[in-house]
Structures
1.
Amino acid sequence: MNAQTLIESGTVLDIPLNKLKKSPKNARKTPHGDAAIEALAASIAAKGLLQAPVVEPETGEDGEPTGFYLVTIGEGRRLALALRAKRKEIRKSEPVRCVVDTANDPHEISLDENVTRTDMHPADQFEAFKRLSDERGLSAEDIGARFGVSAQVVRQRLRLGAVSPKLMAIYREDGLTLDQLMAFAVSEDHERQEQVYDQLSWNRSAALIRRAMTEAKVPASDRRAVFVGVDAYAEAGGQTLRDLFTEDGGGWLEDAALLDRLAGAKLEAIATEVREREGWKWATACLDYPHGHGWRRVYPRPVERTEDEAAQIAALSEEYDALVSQWDAVEDLPPEVEARFKAIDAALDAFGDGTAYDPDEVARGGVFVVLGHDGQVRVERGLIRPEDEAPAPSAETEADGEGAIPAEPRPDAGASEDEPEDEGLAPLSERLVLDLTAHKTVGLREALASDPTLALTALVHALALKTFYPPYEQSSCVEVKLVSAYLDGHAPGVSESPAGRRIAERHEAWAQRFPRESAEAWGFVAGLDGGELLDLLAHCVSLGVNAVRNPMDRKPGAWAHAEVLAQAAGLDMTRTWAPTVSSYLGRITKPRILEAVREAAGEDAAFLCADLGLSCSPGWITPPTSTAG
């Protein structure tokens, strides 16, 4: 009998790695994952093989030993060693200390090794990693290399290991889920963690806990943070909190007061620069546009070009178009051509966009420098305060004023109070005036009803007065009510949406065309052709649409009409709104999300989302793969 068969069970042998094979009797049929083998290889490289594999001698069909050994227990370790040999970290014939077992059934002991064991509790894992960091001074990268996991996973475990001992004890007793523990770990403040836990009611969702843990902090996606910049905030001494377990969008800024000061100072600097460069009387920096101030707004007017300026602009534009046609197909322009493009752009920019504010309005007016919903600065120009309005022309001028025009004497000047008044046309009685003007009104109504074009002009004129002029200058006898609801109060930033910006641009384009004085608005509106008249009507009417479903102002009929109007207009909300976590998905339930996916992408996509789950379970929650595995 061959000597190999005489090896006593329980003997420890050093067997060359290339003489070890996978046992067909191994109870584990599902292959080891790549990550698990990587972790085992890293562990063995750092600490050696802590537990010897169990093997049995391989025999051929004739029952004779082949010289190889089958690994009954420790297939994962064999694969990890083979991986190290493949990477040339060890020799293919590296001796591996193994225990020979010929007394037991290989399949049974393989099954027993995988079944009769208890995994380490995740809390023990988290605290053990923290101990390696605290006591041995190992960095996240060092620990990751020793256990075959990424530095980010180590940081997550270290953060969990630093959770309040009180909450960790509750987690050990299954009083908290791992998702809830991760939500508490967004901050390392034990006092705040315990305070939030004590305040929890029936709703203990991870999202609620994370929101409570960060309620006094400012998300990095906040418009103030985007405007100031996280780097500038950090340079000013601000601290940033980051969630290691979710896509936190850059984390949270902990010092809201510092952020407000930085944003205010930056806005003030921009406001000062705009005022000094453009010559406005005042400039005010605001986080939000101060709606409701009631001040008059003026707009730039078209600039009349001289013949020489018009010729220069035409020549530059023609040259630009010629260069574009000549070099359009060339990706890398010659330096001289690229320089000429920039020179033409600069020359055209110097001429401006063809509009300008009246110098007198600039001298009396001002600007609001506001922070948009997207963190970008908006400069709202042309605001005239009541105290800065030009004085109204006086019918009489003080006689002793310098350069004053003497007032004409009144017809009765010098007449004695006792002298009888000259007989003349007595004024009409108030009652008669009411009677006559009522007849005039009904006559106008009949006339307009018989002339649709004139009626349309009168309607557009009345709406335009309400849209572009202050209330005291809305001189129209057509009584039309136009109310434009303030929507930013319901959805902050809606005026900065794509549709909101298009409306603002359209409004400013019309406002620039209207005459300064409301008394001249009729002539402007009456001079529009049919297409422009309808365009202006559409703009004015559109500002009166209100489809907001306010529970304090229930208007079911108006809400139903909004749906009809949307269908008639072919409303496509993708042009102005997209569902994001902050705008929709993070504010609704999972069934609602599945319903939206089903509507947008079909039943198969919804089924896939439901099957996979809408939130990814972190793969690192299981303990590190044991070197015994």
Note: The chain has 24 helices and 14 strands.
2.
Amino acid sequence: MVRFSHIVMKGMNMKDCFEHASDFYTSIFHFPGKLLDMNLKMIETTGNLIKAEQTYWVGLNKYIDDFMIPYETAAKYITRVERDKLFCVPVSESMESYLDLFTFYLDIVNKELAGRIEAINNYHLPELNRLMIAWFTTLFNLEGEDISAFMERYARTLELVTYRYHESIKEIESEYGFHFERSGYIKTAETERFDLYQVLPNDPRVKVREDGKPILIIPPYVLGSNVLAFLPGENKSYVHSFANQGIPTYIRILKDIKTNPAVQVMTGEDDTLDTRFFCEQIKEKHGKLLTLNGYCQGGFTAVCNLLTGKLDGLVDALITCVSPIDGTRSKGLGQFLKDLPRRFNDLAYGTKTLPNGNQVADGDLMSWVYKIKSIDDEAPIVAFYRDLMMMKKTSCGDKGDGQTAGRRRGEQSLNVSKTALAINYWLTYERNDLPMAITEMSFKSYNIPITKDGTLPVKLFNRKLNFARLKEKGIKWLICYGEDDDLVEKETALSPLDYVDTEVTMFPKGHVAIATSWSRPTSEYALHKRFANNQRGPVRYHLDLEREHGHIVEASEGLENTLKM
């Protein structure tokens, strides 16, 4: 009676009473099941946590190993060189150099630590917030990502970075770069050191204008040639940007240095003479003077070739893209070399002796130096967390940009653009040794400034190389640079403006954007377009040269569309 009167006082009828009692007993009945579900989730979460921990250390160790292998090589070279120097240099001078090197090392460590802390915070602080929400979701049985789903996603992200991502980078090889064994290329000539290929249009609507003005593209030694045919299937290819306008397009390809002794001992003079031979072959075929186009270090090489006078009567125009003409003006690599103690700023510390006795510059070590220069962005932990951030979008189901990597049966597809995969393939696998004489040319350009009268710090054929020769011969020059290029900065690429009149075009983004993002014909800064302030892309510049000389006789469908832009 007491309970009944209490219910009445509460204003509840018997129907309400029975409903509340039913809910109460139902919750009691289901409590063991909910407790079991909670225990199962915690067991599953613990399993994912253990898997994630193991995958984390496997993945991080891969990045550390990739960084430390060149370090071990560098240590061997330093030990070898210092063993000889210790007997030739006063002890006091050696001690001072080692102290300076230690100070230099501490500066690098500080930069690495700052980059590491920033990368870890950028990843883990948002994840910590999501973790707390996942705990509340689990404890109060709310909708959303619970602790089990959170830990499963975290483990999946680590697995993608550690295993699937690197497999996808290897798989992109079939689409990345030049594949001369396939159709679309014609081997035109060769020397002991280089092969010359004509690049044919991969747009079926376009035919090569055999009487058009030809262009010879000089790739960089350090970056390699494949970056200039980045992803032809995705219409991201620097060389095809020219070929698809009907331009007779040629590229000079360095032979394998490992199997060609002539490449190992090649000099700047050899480079120039081989270039002249190729220019002669191209001019004879098309009956027109060439445009010489160098990308990055290839631009510096092209300038040196022209200043020797050996290409007189063969070339009347020059295009350089993100090319380090005066490396001493570099705020990155140039400043790095200035800060390095003088004793250790020596190519001997990066010289490899091959089994046949020839000496070359170690390509792995060269690549490692670039990483050290940007240690706050390229340290292994920083790179690992940068890829984790990218993979987090995949594991969360976010969309990637553009075409993405495929998957094998039973594997999760990566929402990572083919561009990102191809760039990482290039950075990971395109490491080649370099001829010492060619390396010395670049080394001088980064340590010795161009003189006030425009003389380069390099001599070829025992002759000074001065910019005045370009003016004397009336050679037109277009310089293209990247607005955010932190490898070849604006000041380095535009240094010739102090000595000669050239045309300049600025492209947004960084060092390889001209060969990747902007080589796509539909992009905002496509190479065949005109931009703000009447700036011209390299393809547009070459097409306009053709029109000036009346070389365009019959335009293809693709070219007609281009010329209207």
Note: Residues 327 and 446 are 4 Å apart (CA to CA).
3.
Amino acid sequence: MDKNTIIGLVLIFAILFGFSYLNRPSKEEIAARQRYQDSVATANAEQIRAQIELEREQRKLDSAAMAGHAIDTARAEALYGSFAGAAFGENEEIEVESDLLRLKFSTRGGRVSYAELKEYRTHDSMPLVLFEGEEAESNFILLTANNRVLNTKDLYFKPILERREDAHVMTMRLEVDPDSHLDFVYTIPDSNYMTGFEIRAHNMEQHLDNRTNSLEMQWKSLIRQQEKGRKFESRYAVMYYKYTGDDVEEMSQNKNDAEKTTGRVRWVAFKDQFFSTIMLADNSFTSTTLESEIMPERSNYIKAYSMDATVEFDPTGKNPTMMQTYYGPNQHRILKSYDKGVDSDEQLDLEKIIPLGWSLFRWVSQLLIIPMFNFFGRFISNYGVIILLMTIVIKLILLPLTFKSYMSSAKMRVLRPQIDEINARIPAEKAMERNQATMALYQKAGINPMGGCLPLLLQMPILFAMFSFFPTAIELRQQSFLWADDLSSYDAIVSWDTYIPFISNTFGNHISLFCLLMTIVNLIYTKVNMSSQPSGGQMAGMNIVMYLMPIMFLFIFNNYASGLSYYYLVSLLITIGQTYLFRLFVDEKKLLKKIEAAKAKPQKKSGFMARLEAAQKAQQEAIRKQQQQQRGRR
């Protein structure tokens, strides 16, 4: 550090110290600030005590009402103000049924207290209920004109059920006086999982705080276990949300998580593996806080979700608060349909709650896998047959790449004796010289060493897309094939209840038959491949690793969807068949003759070979210079 730097730092510290000293508050200012803070703390304490006292009095009145005792009207009005008439009553549930949904509405809180998807069943054949009773809660906080804080979940609404064209309309009305009320209006279409929800005020400005222009909303739900494999279901039960005009975000899937958003949120999804409840706001949620909690293993619930947010609200009733709620399956076709005809910057992107992998894999799924799956589904009802046909189509698409990879491997195989001769002629200490001789041989023979790897790399997006698609395809749910009664879950052939350390944590207390067959066929495929590869000390170690990989897959896929293991099983069988067909039609003796004939002709260097040779020369030159420098020092 030079002198000028030291002087500069000293001046900077001197300026900062002087600025702080000159701008320090006086004793009077400090005392005034302390008095202000004390008064604020006192006021907050008083407000908290008043709220606690209010809640205590409310509980007393509620207990009296439940016991059938007379209510002190004056006392109730003092607590609830003009809302006293809605503070007591008897809870009733009104059922509304559409083609797809069965909903129940509770007069206490004016909320949906029960949601059932009529076309689906749980893994044990019970009605598929998203939530019931206290498992879910929706609440809006009202600040009244007499400075009371009320919760709509504690107030009683009057139900008004109407039929309009192709929908039921349930209005839950919170009456304050004959001319003032607050309506929660639910619209349930006959054939749609998306329901409407509006908050409409009528002459409510005189009963609410005059500063009211928004409502604080609280939404909570316990997520029931609906599927056979709890661990697998929990992995895919994730809370999602989307910022207005931005991308979709997700909470943690494997730990408790909380998020306080900073922007405007378009929708929030309480997602299970195959079903979701999604709350959408036309004008966005603000000040949104989200929480996701993993429930204990022995619980009947997978996750607990909650959302606290603020929504716009007009007490005069001129501008109703518009929202929507989706109760339905996580099916790509249905979720994508809500963006039909919508501008790209206004699209909901609800289908992104279905995890299809990274962007590249998602594109493959959306452009190839899902359209092909839906196409076959129009004509075939057996999903095992559909998976078989999809596998055949994918193998046909990849056939040129597979053949190219095989030919590259075959060329290197027939040249193996010449490579062994090079290794015998050039000692291992001269590794650079060995590599140059090998590359020269490949160049003369017209072989690209990367020719076998590149086709395999090009196949990877499809393989990973299929890996992400099958566990999330609700179409496979409870679809049977052969011995598997549910292609979206594991197909246990053997099960046990005893906990086995490590095995039970990673493998589960069962053995899936499709997964076991896939492992066996994978070992056979490895044997077929290894039989055509050269042997030796280093290759023997590599062979052991190749045989261990199928065993690892047994542990990985044992809890996965049986449809995925079935796909890999069929894919491996077809691959083995292709390998034997290639060997049948490719004469390696003729191939060697062609290579020898090609070696006699002048060869143009490929871009890869030219770059590789240039890199080798540069490395050689660097080694030569280093050796010269070492000799010079001596």
Note: Confidence is low (pLDDT under 50) at residues 40-45, 65-70.
4.
Amino acid sequence: MSEQFDYIIVGGGSAGCILANRLSESGDHSVCLLEAGPPDRNPYIHIPAGFIKTLTDPKLNWLYQAEPSDGTGGRSTPVPRGKTLGGSSSINGHIYNRGHRLDFDAWAQRGNLGWGYADVLPYFRRCETRIGEGDDTYRGRSGPLTVADIPMKHALCDAFIAGAGELGIPQNPDYNGAVQEGISYVQRTAHKGRRVSTATAFLNPAKSRSNLTVKTNAQATRILLDAKRAVGVEVSIGGRDGQRIELKANREVIVSGGAINSPQLLQLSGIGDPEHLTSIGIDVLHALPGVGQNLQDHYAPRLSARVKGIETLNERARGLRLLGEIGKYLVGAESIVNLSATMVYGFWHSNPDTRSNDLQFIFTPASFKEGQHGVFDSHPGYTVAAWQHRPESRGHVTATSADPFAPPRIQPNYLDTEGDRRMVVEAIKLARRLMNTNAMQPYNDGESYPGEDVQSDDEMLDAARRWGNTTYHVMGTCKMGPSSDKIAVVDDQLRVYGMEGLRVIDASVMPAMISANLNAAVMMIGEKGSDLVLGHPALEPVVVPELAG
């Protein structure tokens, strides 16, 4: 006999763990959370600098690869996605960055009622406990998720921030507050030497509830449909050769697999573009052409320079010095083991006349071997990455067969438009200006890559194609939009068009890219989505002052 629940959540990631907590909170509903990966017991998950290990661990990561394209110089680029409780919030660089308020107003202007900045701000606040500076108009102080400042500073970071000031980029104490533009040390979802994932913040406190069932190593292979209603999920316990079971949903199936897995599961279930489904041998049960379309990502060229006259993280990450850093971490002292993916964040504009806040940049007082992610250079160095906030290029995610264990085809189409190609060159130019300020001059010992011989726009564009890469911000493949939008997959209640009892709640519903890393916004979507599922009134909108200028 099949197990039955009121709600089945497919995917125990950034949104799924929040949904599991909120939907089971009252005790009135039975909830089942399915996660294809293992529990989040691996110690590298919880050590801040351990994310470097999780990005290449097949036990914790789907390790997807994007298809080659002209925008990547014919290279296949990585698309890491979390495969454990907490999902990508358990393997990411734990940066907390909400985005610009106008991003969400643009969502609402596209016909998504209730998704403007005033509407979503209360859910950002409900989610977090902000430790540190911040106006409580914008910041939460009592939510499950701890958001703190990075606990370590570095003299090279201070010089970089000072140099940004030479370019007119102001220091901003809270880029998640009233104004995003500016530069500062990062805010992150890590505190007291431990990562704060949605599994630790939301799921762990809820696990003891009798009405919540959590199944790990449980991969959903198909959504069970009765005509145009989702009635359950087919699951393989233990992978390809595992036990196949069926779980029934009395109320709803909620797909929260993320921007890659969610569209693939819909397609495997016969929901998608009829021509594509037929071509891979899947019966069309519900025609919905937008499934898997609208894929977007931030594409970043990373510049590196050699350093003189100051110590970087490179020296501290080798040999006996590294053992010492581990020892300091274990006793709670300042240590590079307690660092995040980067230390400094900035938000600026490519055009001083329009001031459109269209570029983001980061700084790390360390350099890495070209083409070897997370492998430190043998010489001291630093890294600057910069990227376009709102790319125009659109890609797709498509199942390659009816086999649920076959990875999907992922094609982001990086730099597919002239506008994106122009903007990636502007990003490189901004990065170079930041690298060559007066404040940075005492420490510069030559540009490692792309190299000082790369000067023309065409040379910079070619360099970006050869060594640019993902920033791990894939989204948009089950787009939220009005019924008049031909590629919309869900409405503004996150219900799949033409279906009953089926929603998608994760990064895939984002209709357009935001000016940020995605994890904070995905958690907001999980929070707001839980109220939509339960039929709760939306939180009261927060009216904030208009932006100046």
Note: The chain has one domain: 3-534.
